[in-house]
Amino acid sequence: MLKHHLHKILEAGTDEAGRGCLAGPVTAAAVILPEDFTNTTLNDSKQLSEQRRKLLRPVVEEQALCYGVCHVFEAEIDEINILNASITGMHRAIDQLSVIPEFILVDGNRFRPYKNIPHECIIKGDGKYMSIAAASVLAKTYRDAYMEKIHEEFPMYNWKKNKGYPTKEHREAIRKYGASKYHRKSFRLLPEQLKLEF
């Protein structure tokens, strides 16, 4: 069972999706849920089917006190590295909240303090706290929708299915067609690659 709050104060949960992908943005979300929020389906979004996440997204959006979602794109990931891009995305998602949280729950083990608001990093937090699970659902569904959109432009990579993750099929397509403008140039796109010509 997911816990609701760590503290009895206005708490924002934040999470990201797409950190391990070879293409597309890393997408972060931040959510403040009302104190009486309950939902039996909402759990760690990685345990949820894509169908269930899609059904949960409007529920979270309608019932949250507020939420924010932010994409950090490839060029910026390549410039500041994926860890910094993830944290920057979370900060920008928190920037969008219409209510200022008094505490921030972060999924994972790394974060940079946001303004002067106290925070706590929680490993596998999306399986422990409602607000992080809600953020996780938004981050994942927004990112998936974006990957499905750019799939139309480059169908050969099958991002609709692999969402940019390093599946065997995705790597085969990179081997065959090279990298697209949506691929992260700072990532090793192919296991044996030393240097790709861009």
How would you describe this protein?
This protein is of the alpha/beta class and 198 residues long. 36% of the residues lie in helices and 15% in strands. It is built from 6 helices and 5 strands. Strands 3-2-1-4-5 form a 5-stranded mixed sheet, sandwiched between helices. The N and C termini lie far apart (48 Å). 40% of the residues are buried. One of its GO terms (biological process) is mismatch repair.
Mean pLDDT: 93
Q: Low-confidence parts, pLDDT < 50 over ≥5 residues? A: none
Strand content: 15-25%
Shape: globular
Largest beta sheet: strand ordering: 3-2-1-4-5
Q: Distance between the terminal alpha carbons, to the nearest Å?
A: 48 Å
In total, the number of strands is 5
Which range best describes the helical content: under 10%, 10-25%, 25-40%, 40-55%, 55-70% or over 70%?
25-40%
Give Rg in angstroms: 17 Å
What is the CATH C-level name of the domain at 11-143? Alpha Beta
What does the main sheet amount to?
5 strands, mixed
Quote the CATH topology of the domain at 11-143: Nucleotidyltransferase, domain 5
CATH architecture of the domain at 11-143: 2-Layer Sandwich
What is the H/E order?
EEHEHHEEHHH
Structural class: alpha/beta
Number of helices: 6
CATH superfamily of the domain at 11-143: Ribonuclease H-like superfamily/Ribonuclease H
EC number: 3.1.26.4
Catalytic activity: Endonucleolytic cleavage to 5'-phosphomonoester
Family: Belongs to the RNase HII family.
Protein name: Ribonuclease HII
